[in-house]
Specification:
This protein is mainly α. Helix content is 80%, strand content 0%.
């Protein structure tokens, strides 16, 4: 009973924090998109002027993402809600990716073909 009460309390608090930081999360997403666009177009550009321009766009996006600290708190709150839901349903919380090995010959063939074609 105590465990469920603690999970419920943590879930409610994390949900409120996530909803309160929804605008900051949106701004963080826009900042990430600006950084992505800056890096993408920097790598595609040929002239020095465009490289300087897109590098400055990426740096400005990175600065706006770093300044947006409440967005990071929102991400942590969403992770806490995810953790509470997993624990509430008695599911295992695993942060490492599990590699599923199958004996399917077609999957093994595709993997070996990709290794040979490198």
């Amino acid at each position: 009973m105590k465990k469920r009460f603690g999970l419920l309390t943590l879930g409610i608090i994390a949900g409120i924090v996530a909803l309160a930081n929804l605008g900051s999360l949106l701004a963080l997403g826009v900042s990430a998109a600006i950084v992505f666009a800056g890096v993408h177009f920097y790598l595609k550009s040929d002239s020095t002027f465009l490289k300087i321009f897109w590098a400055s766009v990426g740096i400005l996006g990175l600065i706006s993402a770093v300044v947006n600290v409440p967005g990071f708190f929102g991400i942590l709150a969403i992770l806490a809600v995810w953790y509470v839901v997993k624990k509430w349903n008695n599911e295992e919380v695993n942060f490492s990716s599990s590699i599923v090995k199958t004996d399917d010959p077609f999957v093994n063939f595709e993997k070996q073909w990709n290794e040979l074609s490198k």
